[in-house]
Task: structure prediction
Amino acid sequence: MGEILGNLATGFVNAVQPLNFLMIVVGLAIGIIAGALPGITMLNSIVLVLPFTYLMGIVPALLLMIGVYCGGVFGGSITGILFNIPGDPMNVPTTWEGYRMSRQGHTQYALGLAIMSSAFGGLVSALFLAFFAPPFARFALSFSTVEFFSVVVFGLASVSVLGQSSMAAALVSLFSGMFLGTIGTEAQYGVERFAFGIPFLKTGVDFVTVLIGLFAIGEVLDQIVGTSSEPAAETPRARAVPRLPLLALWPLRGPLARGTAVGIAVGGLAGAGATVSSFVSYGLEKQISRTPELFGTGHAGGLVASESSVNGSTGGAMIHLLTLGIPGSAATAVMMGAFLLHGIQPGPLLFTRQTAEVYTIVAGMILANVVMIGLGFLAALSFAMLMKVPPPILNTFIVVFCFLGAFALRNDLADVWLTMLFGVLGFFMRRYDLPIPPLVMGIILGPMAEQYFLTSMVAHANDVSVFVTRPVSAALLAISVVIVLWPVVKRLCQRSRPASAT
Amino acid sequence: MPALARVVAPLAGVIVAVALFAATRGLDDVARGEQLGPGFWPRLVLIGLGLASAAKLVENLRRAAPNDHAVARAGAAGLGGVRRGTLLLAIATIVLYVALTPWLGFPLVTVGFVAAFMMLAGARSPVAIGVAAVLGTVGLLYVFVKLVYLPLPKGDGVFETMTLALYRGLGIF
Result:
């Protein structure tokens, strides 16, 4: 412990050197702004800064990327809360609650909660990285695609209770999303599925087009046709300036702690990442909450759990990268490239051979999450100014931004067409009570579930029992079954009660 | 939701699921040995979609039985209260925006779209509409063409020449 503290102190001394600290701040600013723009994901921004690191030393280069990473996972929640446009898929659960809170006039509270819980999750995960990286990495290595599949199923199972009015409607939405995820060229055999000769469908439906369309365009249409399905508070725009609710976090310490723990745990599994952790954390919180019926209507606990897990996953993902040399996500894969470019091989020997660099990175992560509170506040303040723009101008430019966001994905107008199509679909789904969140979860998590399932089958000679004979997988699947069946059992019990009373 | 739609929508879900299930035939021809083929997962998903749609159909039929008006009140908002003309115009404007972009180029179409959509959204001041359309488009061009290097559609023929001239005039090309 003493040795770790000493190394960490050295790391802090290095990280606060002017150039290094500047790189953290610049990286955070780039990450937050890029993350907030739909179509430009956190991964895009890390890739974009990679060439700039060639001329830098290893420490400033990695601190720049760490800054982009930490800022990028948070940035998307700003536009999600303000405009119902999640910057990244991982910010979707935050958007579900944050935008509703914003519509009810609690924009400043929602933004403040998002900033604080994101910073808290990132800070704790960085400390976890500093103190527990090697043993956790060994534990995470014992997980295989069987467990990953079960984690994703757990995330998907939670949607059965997200569709509040009808489980059947929620399942229709979920399976529709999962089906959309199967369109395009299949990864294992390279076979085209459901492309029907349409060229752009061969590369699949990018879930960002679905996200932007369903959430942003659908909302704009809902607002301009006269009767928004949800009443806005009287003066939400005037109170859009964020505030940092330090004391307000105390009653939410449960969701905060659970979200952070889920973020670290899921982030530490190679291949899972921030998106899975945010959905799993949100779903778990809904199961545990005493007011699950309020989820989706502006629940602070849901927002805090999701946001803390998103940034909590950064430390977990870094554990995998630094201790095993295995990137746990696409973002850490790019960062691994930066390590290799500078002649550093991440892996089991990194902590002993390049101690100073490693602990500077860890200290940089800790600093980045502290600085993010200030920078996130400023960014939220800037974006919140847009709330003062008259609705006709704002709604129009949201459509234009959606166009640009969709086009930026592959420089292809076909993606813009898809976005607009899903926008219209989103409008009708709202109007006809077909829940949108399950569809979004289906298209994001469905392909992951398929990949993990098929890989597990290949590895275990098509023996399905492997999912119930491995303890972690069996436990997760059992919980998932309980989650799905619980509302049905509850309804049956409620029906039998009045009958027995008469 | 109208009574007919309550039946037709989920029934369509069942039919689409069955049709797509049939379309998975042949997908597994490439499978090696005992391995699961690329058609396995979509079939699983489509079975789920078909069953869920059938469950929704049953649910809707059960709910609809006692009192249609009560169901309408308790259920979804539907298109009640929606200005359908505005909705159709808004969708048409968006469709035209995307459809015309390859021919007229992003800058020109965006100016037109912003002006038209702002009016649809309730803006009435011609000055505000004009300023927002022109300055907004120029601002977006600076950010996305100059800074992000996004190759936005420039249009065809004379419109491409116009777009390039505009880019040169703005110093972004």
